[in-house]
Amino acid sequence: MPKILVTNDDGISSPGIKILAKTLKSIGDVYVVAPETEQSAVAHALTLHRPLKSAKTGKNAYYINGTPTDCVIIGVNKLLPSRPDIIVSGINNGGNLGDNVTYSGTVAAAIEGTLLGIPSIAVSLVTEYNNNHGPQKMTSGFNRAAECAIEIVNKIIEAGLPKDTLLNVNVPPGPEIMGTKITRQGKLVYDNGIQELADPRGKECYWIGGGEPQWKKGGDTDLDAIHNGYISVTPVHLDLTNYKALKYLKETW
Amino acid sequence: MPKILVTNDDGISSPGIKILAKTLKSIGDVYVVAPETEQSAVAHALTLHRPLKSAKTGKNAYYINGTPTDCVIIGVNKLLPSRPDIIVSGINNGGNLGDNVTYSGTVAAAIEGTLLGIPSIAVSLVTEYNNNHGPQKMTSGFNRAAECAIEIVNKIIEAGLPKDTLLNVNVPPGPEIMGTKITRQGKLVYDNGIQELADPRGKECYWIGGGEPQWKKGGDTDLDAIHNGYISVTPVHLDLTNYKALKYLKETW
User: Fold this and answer.
1) DSSP conformational letter for A27
2) What is this structure's pTM?
3) N or C: which end of chain B has fewer CB within 10 A?
4) pLDDT tens digits, residue range A183-232?
5) Does the CB of B45 have a partner CB in chain A at under 8 Å?
6) DSSP per residue over B91-116, as a string?
7) Residue to test with chain A: of B104, B106, B246, B248, most A Cβ within 10 A
8) Domain, as residue range, for B115
9) Residue from B69, B71, B100, B240 to probe the interface with A (highest A Cβ count within 10 Å)
10) Is beta strand A29-35 parallel, antiparallel or unpaired with respect to A61-64?
11) Do the domain assignments include residue A202?
C-alpha cells in the first residue's frame, strides 16, 4: 500500500478533505496533516516568524496552526513515520484555474511536495460555473473528485511523474463528466472587484473580491476543459523562467 | 516623468523601501504603498476574508494592513490618482533566488503587477553569502541596488518588457559588482531545518528555518550569477505549465 499524505487549504474540518481521505483509504495508508483554519488564497506562504503547533485529531490525522506549505514540511519531516510516496492536496472547494494557481494554497501544498521530491497533485472541485450548490450537490461533487484522485494516484504510482512537476487537477461541477483532458494553464483577465465600506467607527476599508475574471476561449487550456465539462489535468513546474524572453533579453540588453 | 508604484514585503518602515523610493524620485513620480508589517515569505497571498485598511504616512505614501499583493491591488485601483507606468518591489533584505521566488512576497508584488498588465520588477539585495552586514554595509548595499533599479526602470520605460513577464533582479552583497547577467531561475535543494522547542507550558513546537539550501553550480542561473558577483536579472512569467510534460502526458495517458 502506498503511503499517502493528504492536505488542503480549506482546513482540517472541511468536507472536501474528509471525503478525499476516506476515499483514498481504499488504495493506501492515508495520513492527514492539514491547517487548523481555512487558508484559502495564502499561496505558497511559509511561516518563519513563529513556531508552529500540531494536534492529533484522530488516527493518522493532525492539524497545524499554519499554512498548507507548513503542513507539508512538518508532516513530511516530523509527523509521518517515514516519507510519503505521494501527496494529494484537496479537495478544494472551488477551482484553481488559469493564473489563479499562483494564489492557491491547495496548489502550493503540491508545490512544496514537489520541492521535496515527492510526487504531488492538487485536486479542486470547480463550483464557479454552477451556483446551485447545496450540501447534497457538494457531497456528490467531492465524491466524484475523490474517485478521480484515486485514478490519478494509481496512474502516478504505476508510471511516475515527469521530474519537478506536479499535476493540477480540476473537476467540473458535474453531474455529467465528459472525460479527462491534459491541459495547459489558461490566462485570466481580472477585474479586481473591490468593495468600499466603512468600519463601525466610520473608517474607510477595502474588501477585495467579487470580480469575475474573463478568459480567452479556445485552445487546450484548463479553463476551456472545465467549461466544456472535462476533468482538467495540468502538468505544472516551478521553473518560472520565460525562456523566450531570456533569449530576447540576452540578445538586446 | 513616469509614475512609479513602490512596494515591498519587508514593510513600510524597512530601510530598503525608503532608500528605493528616495532614489527613484530622481527619475519619476513615486508612490509608496507597502504592508504595515513585515510580510516575508507570504508569497502571492491575497487577503479575501477581511477588509483592508490604509493609512497615509506622508506625501504619496500609504501602508495597508495586508500582503504585498493586497498593496498592489489597492494601490493601483484605489490609492493612486491613475494607473502607474511601472511597479518596483523592494529592495528586499535578502536574495530571492532559485525556487525561493515561489515563497517571496517581494516577487509576488511584481507578479500581481504583471497580472494587472503593468511592467513590474522585484529587486532584492542578497545578504546570504556575506554575514558581516552592519547597518553601514546594508545602507551601501541598498544604495547600490537602488541605482541598479534606476538603470533597469529606465531600460523598461524606453524598451518595454516582454508580454506577461516581470524581471526578478538580485544584487550581490558587494561592494564590488562584476556586471549584470540575464539569467534563468536556478534549482535549490532544501534541507528544511526545523527546530523543535517547547512553549512556556511545555507543549512541543516546530520552528521552520535555519537550513541552508544547496544548488548545482554552473550554467546561466541566478544563483551562479550572484555567487560570481554579478547582478542577476531573470525574466519570470506566470505560465507554470511544463510544456514538455504536457506533450509527454498527452501521448502516454
Assistant:
1) T
2) 0.95
3) N
4) 999 998 887 789 999 999 999 999 998 777 888 888 899 999 999 999 99
5) yes
6) EEES---GGGGGT-HHHHHHHHHHHT
7) B246
8) 3-185+216-252
9) B240
10) parallel
11) no
